[in-house]
Structure prediction request, 128 residues.
Amino acid sequence: QVQLSESGGGLVQARGSLRLSCAASERTGRYYFRGWFRQAPGKNREFVAAIKGSDGSTYFANAVKGRFAISRDNDQNTLYLQMNSLEPEDTAVYYCAFKSLYCSTPGCYAVPRNYDYWGQGTQVTVSS
Prediction:
């Protein structure tokens, strides 16, 4: 099965930027959705962004829309999350995740249990 490894997290001041990477151990073209989630202490894991494998359509949580961008480099088997204008509320462990199978339910890309493979996470801390 595919192995996922996130990198790029760290400590940044508010209004700063970070770029997260998710390296996969195999070619990623077959995955229906590839996404980013985050989990802050004491909170549930929440959806951040996703990209559809078939056509590159992107989806974002309202909290990050306009500030974050998701992209992929299929040749390098890598998924990215560019995070701009970071806020202290963005502090969390960020996870990348891959979903293998098709789903048509509206918003299915945003549900953590729909994803099959997860990375170990990378910490992002935004100071005020």
User: Anything to note?
Assistant: The longest strand covers residues 92-99. The chain has a mean pLDDT of 95.
